[in-house]
Amino acid sequence: MELTGNHIRAARVLADMDQADLAKKSRVSINTIRNLEAAGAQRIGGRASTRGKVQACLEAVGVEFTNGDTPGVRLVSVKPKKRR
């Protein structure tokens, strides 16, 4: 599936993360997350390894990137947040 900036943004929101959370958990800079999301409906460019880190992080928290007639994202499972 070719990810767009909108996919990343929607997946991040479904995962209840802000850009800083996603950057930290995927081990990329916050500017990288901003740039990925800024692509909007366009396919994300840049390094495949960076896209892979971000996608893997979102999938680890229960987001599924779908493909088919209407590519998109959905929340498969919700992992409870740890209480402190």
Using only CA atoms, what is the Rg? 12 Å
Percent helix: 40-55%
The helix/strand class is mainly alpha
**Spatial strand order of the main sheet:** 1-2
CATH C-level: Mainly Alpha
End-to-end distance, in Å? 37 Å
Largest sheet: 2 strands, antiparallel
| Percent of sequence in beta strands | 5-15%
Q: What is the total number of structural domains?
A: 1
Walk me through this protein's architecture.
With 84 residues, the protein is mainly α. It has one domain (5-75): 434 Repressor (Amino-terminal Domain), CATH 1.10.260.40. It contains four helices and two strands; from the N terminus they run ααααββ. The protein has a two-stranded antiparallel ribbon. A hairpin with a 5-residue loop joins strand 1 and strand 2. Helix 2 packs across helix 3 and helix 2 packs across helix 4 (48-60). The longest helix is centred in the middle third of the chain and has 13 residues, at 48-60. The mean pLDDT is 87.
Please tag this protein with its features:
84 residues; 434 Repressor (Amino-terminal Domain); globular
Would you spell out the secondary-structure blueprint of this structure?
Elements: H1 5-14, H2 19-26, H3 30-38, H4 48-60, E1 63-66, E2 72-75
Antiparallel strand pairs: 1-2
How would you summarize what this structure contains?
The protein has 84 residues and is mainly α. The protein contains 4 helices and 2 strands.
